[in-house]
Amino acid sequence: HACADAYARGYDAVHGHDARFAYYFWSGFTSVLREERFTPRAEDWQRVQRVARDSAAPHGERCMASLTLGVLSFAEFDRDAARRWYAKTISVGEAATAAARKRTVLRPDAATHNPFDAVLEGVVV
Q1: Rounded CA gap, 81 and 73, in Å?
Q2: Contacts of residue 18, Cβ cutoff 8 Å, sequence gap at least 6
């Protein structure tokens, strides 16, 4: 859980302030959950559901959230919920504007301050 927690802290720290790093932290958090190396806690599910249901959240974050909930539901043998979350993933993607579809998330520039360093310091992944 330490890695997921670090990504969640990073996301909370930059969400609404730096879309690029929020995307990176969210991607890290959701991918750790999808790897199924541990059982997600209730607060993990709630965090992902909150983003999946937030119509103001960026499409990329909402798609990752819905996909993650689909994977987690499938792993728990809840096929109906998995189907609904996968369908939501598709509908969020289809609803993306042309500008959102063209959006490019750039890699962090090593010459600039990198919030990953502070948040992930001491976390073994």
Answers
A1: 6
A2: 115
